[in-house]
Design goal:
Helix content: over 70%
Radius of gyration: 17 Å
Distance between the termini: 31 Å
Number of helices: 9
Largest sheet: 2 strands, antiparallel
Number of strands: 2
Structural class: mainly alpha
Shape: globular
Strand order of the largest sheet: 1-2
Length: 201
């Protein structure tokens, strides 16, 4: 199976979608702020694996199912936005305890990987990205294998960038109260991103 579209345009589209603020990036920012870069590998892998599986599902016809059943897409958006807002509020509520813990005291594991993998299927931004890239694809030089490689490398790099920003901020801020404010701000941005997903046409 081959997919259409100039490779450069697909790369730019994927990068622009993967690097801009959204639930995945804000969660990585918060995790980097709370636990450092070492805790990000498992959840980031879950995000990437979920994206690849969604891409494969889209290529075998799931995009047509979304087009044929608008209610399915609406239900996914509402469920995903609700999850994102709940996560944001939860992170705000536990920010005090995590800010007092030593940086790096939490490590990501299999549960984080599985949670982030499953989260992708109710993440509206992830579906928008996958369906847009699939729609921009067709029958020229860009193979499905190449697209899968791009779906692995580009999101990994963008997630690492956001997590690195959180880790850097945590290393520069040693006052507990300031860290609490930073973590609450990250949680608030996450909750707001969920609300904005509901406003998307």
């Amino acid at each position: 199976m081959s997919l259409m579209g100039p490779p450069g345009a697909i790369v730019l589209l994927l990068f622009a979608a993967a690097v801009t603020p959204g639930p995945n990036n804000l969660l990585m920012l918060r995790l980097g702020l709370e636990s450092g870069l070492h805790a990000v590998l498992a959840p980031a892998t879950g995000v990437v694996m979920g994206g690849v599986v969604m891409l494969l599902l889209s290529c075998v016809g799931l995009a047509r199912a979304f087009a044929a059943h608008p209610g399915l897409r609406a239900a996914t958006t509402i469920c995903g936005a609700g999850c994102v807002m709940w996560l944001g509020v939860r992170l705000i509520c536990r920010s005090g305890a995590s800010a007092r813990a030593p940086l790096g005291s939490r490590t990501g594991g299999a549960c984080d990987l599985l949670r982030m993998f499953l989260f992708q299927f109710v993440n509206p931004k992830a579906w928008i990205l996958v369906l847009t890239v699939t729609a921009a694809a067709g029958d020229t030089s860009l193979s499905l294998v190449t697209l899968i490689v791009l779906f692995i490398l580009i999101p990994y790099g963008c997630l690492a960038l956001w997590a690195g920003g959180g880790s850097l901020a945590a290393s520069l801020v040693h006052d507990t109260r300031a860290r609490v404010r930073l973590e609450r701000s990250a949680g608030a941005m996450l909750a707001l991103s969920g609300l904005l997903l509901l406003c998307r046409p």
